[in-house]
Amino acid sequence: MNNNLKHKHWFPHPANLRNERRMKRAMKDLDLLASEFEISLPILQTVITSYGFFELFTTDDGEMFVSPLLNGLMVPYIEKQKKNQIAGQISAKKRKLKQEQQLLELSQLHSVQDMLNGSETHVAHNRQQETKVKENKSLWLHDFQFFKNFIVNAYKDQIVCYGALDFKTSTGIKVTTQGYLFNTHSMQDLSPDEAKKAWKWMFENQDKLCEIEVQDE
Fold first, then answer.
1. With 195 labelled, which of 52, 84, 129, 151 sits at a CA distance of 20 to 30 A?
2. pTM surpassing 0.70?
């Protein structure tokens, strides 16, 4: 097949149709030639009703006819059209989802950069972004290492949560300036095992973390 036809809609045509038995009979009976387009209505009706080329059926609009041969030949064409249409819709949805994901990632990156920027010119903007980040934590704080780095920077010298693990509800877990987790009840840094459990609890309970305090410089 010609390479140019592979990307086009097409349907097969019956070869040597003029020598088909019914066609030869009609041509003999009616003395028809392929070039004779201006034929009378009676001859046209005879061709439609008498030689099995068409199937007749009645509708509310009257009597109609169809070609079973043509309908059969059109099946691959129609199926290809439907497949191409579905493939186009899927491709369009994928492009839209990819664009939305890219916009979300850019927005998230911008939000994090703004939250970590303590300059006076961004303090007001930071406060607005904090609310957005709080609402969307489940979307962009999905990676544990990213989550941990974010908490260490955003909650530095602040209480990040209360009641993690088996600590009392009133016991706050604070992030020190060195990035360690600190038990405000015992006034000691958490042990490695305690810190590991606390980080796991915070990652799985992001909706229970404290609000970030924005400190103006």
1. 129
2. no
